[in-house]
Amino acid sequence: MSEYVVLGTDPVTLIGSLVIEPASEFNRATHWLFWKLLTNRDYDNKAVIRIKNRTDANRMAAGYKVLFGLGWVKRIKQQHYFINPDVALSALYLYEDLIKEWRE
C-alpha cells in the first residue's frame, strides 16, 4: 500500500500543492534531487540544475534514475528537467497545457 502526503495545499486554488507517493522508495540522492528540482522550478514546472562537483553529479544520476522510473521527472535537455504536473503543480490554471506538454 502506498502512502500519500499532501504538502502546502491551498484548498481553494490548489496553488503550490504537492502530492508525494510513494516516498518510501526514495533514497538520499532521490530526496536531494527532488527537493532541488522543486526549489529551482519555474512557473511551468521546469527546473535548471547546475552541477558543480562530482558528488552532485553522482547524486543527480542516482536520483534521476528513481524519479524517471516513477514518471515524476524527465530530462528535456542537459541540466534542464520537467516535473510531472500530476506530482507538483505551480498553478492550477496551467495544468492542461503542462499535461499536454508532458505527454508529448
Q: Which tags fit this structure?
A:
Arc Repressor Mutant, subunit A; alpha+beta; 5 strands; disordered N terminus; two-stranded antiparallel sheet; 104 residues
Descriptive overview:
The protein is globular. Helix 1 (28-40) packs across helix 2. Helix content is 38%, strand content 17%. With 104 residues, it is of the alpha+beta class. It has helices at 28-40, 54-70, 95-103, and strands at residues 5-7, 18-20, 46-48, 73-77, 80-83. The chain has a domain at 26-85 and 93-103: Arc Repressor Mutant, subunit A. Strand 4 and strand 5 (80-83) form a beta hairpin. It has a 3-stranded antiparallel sheet with strand order 3-5-4.
Top CATH class of the domain at 26-85 and 93-103: Mainly Alpha
What order do the SSEs take from the amino end to the carboxyl end, as H and E? EEHEHEEH
Residue share in β-strands = 15-25%
CATH topology of the domain at 26-85 and 93-103: Arc Repressor Mutant, subunit A
Strand order of the largest sheet: 3-5-4
Short description:
With 104 residues, the protein is of the alpha+beta class. It is 38% helix and 17% strand.
Helix-strand blueprint:
Elements (H helix, E strand, L loop, with lengths): L4 E3 L10 E3 L7 H13 L5 E3 L5 H17 L2 E5 L2 E4 L11 H9 L1
Antiparallel strand pairs: 1-2, 3-5, 4-5
Helix pairs in contact: 1-2
